[in-house]
């Protein structure tokens, strides 16, 4: 059984006219959740662009490993070149921006296709691509590479693992919703 949200006025007898639009719950949820992650990623990218130096310092300290336990067996991993650190940071911003744009397109396709009962396949593909970009950024980039390779977990000052885990979980949950069965709309 597919649950639906029904919008529209009721007739004098208390029923809704048959011509009123029914909005399928799963595509609506997928669209709104995709839009939420898109907004978040757009704000993250915008913040990193307009307040470049704040998170630049974060990336520099994580890559330099200067606030870790400084174990000699790990310190060979440190990247101390400011140029390489800045390139890494700019690449992160580009990745965030592209993810936000793909997610915006996915959300627009979900929400625009609900009334037409079309575009579900395209919306899923766009949302999946954008959400996977977020998962790769926070899972592989921040949790695995930053957290483990550069020992970010050892830093009391520059540890972003909790935030990365929240972002990873949010994107993962939305990805599950995007792929739930229950859409009445035909796939394209």
Question: How do the strands and helices of this protein lay out in sequence?
Answer:
Elements: E1 4-6, E2 22-24, H1 25-50, H2 52-64, H3 82-116, H4 120-149, H5 161-178
Antiparallel strand pairs: 1-2
Helix pairs in contact: 1-2, 1-3, 1-4, 1-5, 2-3, 3-4, 4-5
Q: Residue-averaged pLDDT, rounded? A: 89
Shape from CA axes?
Answer: elongated
Number of helices: 5
Through-space gap between termini:
22 Å
Number of strands: 2
Provide a quick synopsis of the model.
The protein has 188 residues and is mostly helical. Helix content is 65%, strand content 3%.
Key terms:
disordered C terminus, 188 residues, two-stranded antiparallel sheet, mainly alpha, single chain, 5 helices
Question: What does this 3D model show about the protein?
Answer:
- There is one protein chain.
- By secondary structure, this protein is mainly alpha-helical.
- It is 65% helix and 3% strand.
- It is built from 5 helices and 2 strands.
- It has helices spanning 25-50, 52-64, 82-116, 120-149, 161-178, and strands at residues 4-6, 22-24.
- It has a two-stranded antiparallel sheet with strand order 1-2.
- The longest helix is centred in the middle third of the chain and has 35 residues, at 82-116.
- The radius of gyration is 21 Å and the shape is elongated.
- Residues 184-188 have low confidence and may be disordered.
């Amino acid at each position: 059984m597919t649950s639906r949200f029904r919008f529209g006025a009721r007739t004098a007898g208390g029923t809704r006219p048959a011509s009123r639009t029914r909005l399928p719950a799963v595509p609506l949820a997928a669209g709104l959740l995709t839009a939420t992650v898109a907004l978040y990623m757009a704000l993250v990218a915008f913040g990193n662009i307009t307040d470049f130096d704040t998170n630049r310092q974060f990336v520099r300290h994580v890559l330099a490993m200067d606030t870790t336990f400084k174990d000699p067996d790990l310190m060979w991993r440190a990247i101390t070149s400011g140029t390489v650190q800045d390139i890494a940071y700019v690449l992160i911003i580009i990745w965030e921006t592209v993810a936000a744009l793909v997610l915006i397109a996915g959300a627009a396709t979900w929400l625009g296709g609900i009334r037409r009962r079309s575009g579900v396949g395209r919306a899923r593909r766009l949302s999946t691509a954008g959400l996977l970009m977020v998962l790769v950024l926070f899972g592989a980039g921040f949790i695995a590479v930053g957290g483990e390779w550069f020992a970010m977990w050892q830093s009391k000052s520059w540890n972003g693992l909790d935030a990365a885990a929240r972002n990873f979980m949010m994107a993962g949950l939305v990805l599950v919703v995007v792929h739930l069965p229950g859409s009445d709309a035909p796939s394209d």
